[in-house]
Design goal:
alpha/beta; Nucleotidyltransferase, domain 5; 6-stranded mixed β-sheet; 6 strands; globular
């Protein structure tokens, strides 16, 4: 993008080259995804889940808009065709209501012990966006839909994780219908990729292999674009190959 203005140089005492990276955190996160092929799906998993695929051109079909998909600018001239859906906000809220008595790994372990608990919720329902009590919102939804009401922390966690996995599966089916692609796998980046139990549920719900990492996708994506500018990598594909071989 060039260097600093003279005014800035005078204030800080030096000049440098400013590089343009994926300026939205999702764009940088997607840049870090070590795609195995062009039909692989990504999920940038954190408080929210950004699920999508890279395209060369935007998809402006009415069906895509009605399904909640959007086109965002990505790195290297790509389009990140994605759907913004619920992420770990629900379990974060439940953990807070439980006075942080359990760590996230402990909640995942408790969910595994309750993995046969059958109730599921529509995670994108407005009742889960900003409820006074997430626990009450989940229980009320289950009651209204004539499902067993979760009581123990493990049951609540299982409802959340199972419902997220089902939501991912539904969104991938929509994505395939909208793009004509047959998805071959799921790359999960961001902090949510560390939830191995959710990854297992996602594999089961989608029937697709899940590849986890990097967990600091946004930071890694930002870094590799800067490294590309400095010729540390020959291409974004090269950078992603290095990431795939790393422990990130």
């Amino acid at each position: 993008m060039g260097g600093f203005t003279k005014e800035i140089q005078e204030q800080i005492g030096f000049n440098t080259i400013v590089m343009q990276v994926g300026s939205h955190d999702t764009a940088s996160a997607v840049a870090s995804v070590p795609f195995r092929d062009e039909n692989a799906v990504y999920i940038s998993s954190g408080t929210w889940s950004l699920l999508g695929i890279e395209l060369d051109q935007p998809n402006t079909d009415l069906e895509a808009r009605n399904a909640g998909f959007s086109n965002e600018g990505g790195c290297n001239g790509k389009i990140t065709f994605l759907k913004n859906i619920m992420g770990l906000w629900m379990i974060q809220s439940v953990r807070k209501e439980l006075n942080d008595a359990y760590s996230y790994p402990q909640l995942a372990e408790l969910a595994q012990t309750s993995r046969t608990f059958p109730s599921r919720v529509h995670v994108n329902d407005h009742s889960f966006l900003a409820p006074k009590s997430m626990i009450a919102a989940i229980r009320n939804y289950c009651e209204k839909t004539s499902q067993p009401i979760p009581k123990a922390p493990g049951e609540l966690a299982m409802v959340i994780f199972g419902s997220l996995a089902d939501s991912y599966a539904q969104s991938i089916r929509q994505l395939e219908s909208l793009t004509g692609k047959i998805c071959t796998g799921i790359h999960i980046v961001g902090g949510g990729c560390n939830n191995r139990f959710l990854n297992q549920l996602t594999e089961k719900a989608t029937g697709l292999p899940v590849y986890a990492g990097p967990s600091e996708g946004t930071a890694v994506g930002n870094l590799i674009v800067q490294m590309l500018e400095n010729k540390a990598f020959s291409s974004l594909t090269h950078a992603r190959q290095v990431i795939a071989r790393s422990d990130l």
